[in-house]
Amino acid sequence: MTLSLKQRLAQPGLIAAPGVYDMISARIADAMGFDALYMTGYGTVASHLGLPDAGLASYADMVARVGQIARGTRTPLIADGDTGYGGLLNVDFTVRGYEAAGAQGIQLEDQEYPKKCGHTPDRRVIPLEDAARKIRVAAQARGSKDFLIVARTDARTALGLDEALRRAEAFAEAGADILFIESPESEEELARIGRAFDLPLLANMVEGGRTPVLSRAELETLGFKIAIYPAAGFLAASAALDSVYGAIRQEGSTRGWPGALYPFEDFTRLMGFERIWEFEKQHQDAR
Q: Is-annotated flag, keyword ATP-binding (predicted)?
C-alpha cells in the first residue's frame, strides 16, 4: 500500500523525490517505488513550452500538467506552484486547483512576479508580510490538511541567510507544513537551517546549482526530511538525446552508438500497451 505524503513524513528517514516533468519521466519514476515525486517547474516549462522558467507559464499550463502526472502515477506528487500565479485570490485558486488535480503537496515561493528559477541570479522577493499572507491563504484554501503546503523563500541569494531564516519562521507561523529555504551556498548553511526549525525541511539538490549536493546520510544528519532532485532527470535525458541525435547526424545511423537505450519492448509496456493488446483480444470478434 502506498503511503500518502503526510503519512510518509511521519516515518523516519529521508524522502528522496526525483524531478518529473512529463509522462515518460513520471512513469519511469513511478515504477521505481519512490516515496514521492516532485513536478519540477523548470523541467515542466522547458518540456511543455520550450521556454525558460521565468514566470512565462500560466496557471492553466501548469495545473494541466499536475493533473496529467497525478492521474498517470500512484506515487504522492509534490508540484511546483511558483508564486501562486498572482495575488492572494490567485493563490487561493491555485491551491484549490492543484489539490483537485491530484497533487498531495504544493510548493509556493516568495519571489516577485514574474519569478525566476531558484538557482539563477537577480531574483527579488516580495515583502515578508505579503509572503506570509500568501502562505496563510494557501493553508486556508486547501480542502484537506492532508494536502501539504511547502513554503519556499528565495531570500538567501539577495538578502542573506538571516533574512531567509526569518521568513521561514514566519511561514511556519502562517501554517506551512514543510519549509524550503532555496539556494543555501554551503554545508555550513545547510546545517544552520537544519538546527533552526522543528517542521520538516526540504533541500533542493540541483546538479550544477548553488547548493552542494550531499548524500542521503549527510542530509539526514543535518536535519532534512525531503530532498528533491528537480534537474537530474532532464539533464540526464538531454545528455542522452544530445549523444544519440549527434550519432544520427554524423553517421546517419544508431548502429554502433555506444550509449544505453531503454529496451523498446519495456517502453511499450511502460506506456500501457498491454492493456491495448488485451482489449483487442476481448473485442476482436466485433471488428
A: no
